[in-house]
Write a structure and sequence with these properties.
Layout (H helix, E strand, L loop, with lengths): L2 H11 L16 E2 L3 E3 L6 E3 L6
Antiparallel strand pairs: 1-2, 2-3
Length: 52
């Protein structure tokens, strides 16, 4: 297997998590341990089971 084929196979196996989009300003939200937050407008969405 050539180097290019190995790189292609590795990319195919990689998992990219679904990114959350801010409902207020339509930018990608930051993924934190207990919440998703928008750096532009400050909108925060708590993950399930992590509410304080």
């Amino acid at each position: 297997m050539s180097m290019a084929e190995k790189a292609k196979a590795k990319k195919a196996k990689e998992y990219k998590p679904v990114e959350k989009i801010c409902p207020k300003c339509s930018v990608r939200m930051g993924n934190h341990a207990e919440r998703y937050s928008c750096g532009k407008c400050g909108y925060t969405e708590w993950k399930k089971g992590k509410e304080a």
